[in-house]
Amino acid sequence: MSVAEIGALHARYIRQSDRFKSVWTYHQFASGVFKNFLNAPLPYSIDFQKIYEPIKRLSGMMTDTLATEANAMINAVDKSLDRAAATLLTADQRIPPSMLRRFFERLKSTDENIVLNLIKFYLYADAVEGDCRDKLDFLLTRIGEDYIEERGEYWSRDSLEFRERVLALVTILHIAEAPQEEVVRLIRAVRSLRDEIQKAIKFEELTERNLLRNARMFKHAVGDLYFHPDVLLAIVELNVSTKNKFIKLYQVEEQKIIDDAARLMEHGGAIERNFGDTNPGLVDEIARFRQYKERFDELRAQSNVKHDVLTHLKSSMANILAQLDRGLGGGEGTEDTAADLPATFFDETKLVEKLKEIDADEILMPYLVRIATAIDNAPGELAPPDVAQRPGVVELRLESWEVAAYRKVFESAPSEDEDDTDELWRLYLASAAARIKIDEEATIIATATAAGVRPEKDLLQKSKLSLDCARGLDERFGLVLRDTSYATNERLLHQIYRSRFRLLRGFSGLWLIYDQLGE
Fold this sequence. Notes:
Blueprint: H1 3-36, H2 48-58, H3 67-92, H4 97-106, H5 112-124, H6 131-143, E1 145-148, E2 153-156, H7 159-170, H8 180-198, H9 205-208, H10 211-221, H11 229-275, H12 280-301, H13 307-327, H14 334-340, H15 347-355, H16 365-376, H17 384-388, H18 400-410, H19 422-450, H20 457-481, H21 490-516
Antiparallel strand pairs: 1-2
Helix pairs in contact: 1-2, 1-3, 1-5, 2-3, 4-6, 5-6, 6-11, 7-11, 8-10, 8-11, 8-19, 11-12, 11-13, 12-13, 16-19, 18-19, 19-20, 19-21, 20-21
């Protein structure tokens, strides 16, 4: 046997030893999960000592005289490892990605070699789709991040060091070369997803705008290109920035949710007694709220709160408050009951009712609430141009006169001149809300399409409604411009045209994307 053949045989032995280590590490991990999380016995039995014995003997057989025997032994061990990996992957189906994450988060410290060997286990087994993709995504991010304690956030590790580590890992898969332009396109799509998530200013936006779900769909849809080192670096950066955003928004929401939910639980019985007979739907909603609250408490105890559970809990509380607000219009006992309920229960409902005065399309209400909340959080003494540049407002990209319009409608701010009408202020606000909605939907659809993912039907239906809404608002702008009283007012004409053209620019972008999909 030639020197080259002996070298190839030795490389197979090294790879096989490495694979055995990854299989053994996974077995150790699975043993811990089944014992501490699933409270169940291991569903398999593998004689690892029997597999390891020939590997140990092989170390002294990499010679010309024993090469043939060594080759046969390596083939036999490969088959044993294939069977062991298949058995472990069957058990792995009972371990969801969230459980793997909780396992590592419960550990005070983790030997990075454990994480590396678990990654190798999935790669050697070519188990890289479905839930395995989610697990790999978590594990790869784990070795690609550092926690900066003084800043209280995670940070992506030095790209050169991490890239070399990724290169060493992905050689296990033998990924085909990809055209550079395709790699660049995917990296841009990843960064677009990252930027959209960073724009979120409220926790529920992560659910309402499907931001986390779209990122997960993207990572599943890119196939083997997920493992291209440059794409993977961008994905880890996306994951780290998303984790920081999630933690930041959740910390803001958690205590408020706990306090409001506790108050609602305290008054739930009184609410049912006083309003249940006249509003059976309210009783049903309270029952749903209690289910969400129980699920939230359970997941919080496990440090495993999911964004959709938190959003459902908030939504259920808002529905109860909305129904209560509608039920407080009169009748015996109304005043006594209202006095027993915390005033904070009605804040969000009052805001929604206030915004209905704009007479805007119902689909714009969540976006009007975002505009109102952002502006209300700004100090009242700030001028509209300054408010438009404040954190929480600047992300909405409002014009200064749109901020002023909100204050004129709801805070009785003075008008600059007699041509500055109530009708115009309401139009500014409705068009700003529509513009935000359209821009977000266009970005989500374009990102999914660029990654080869077909946008969900529900999203496309919402986009169709957005386009119809924008057409109606454009007609209202047309009617305003036909009013001759604006013809000589250059300031107002500039504002009207700019708000209208910004709406039309968003409309045309979404329409082109929507039309390209053949909807």
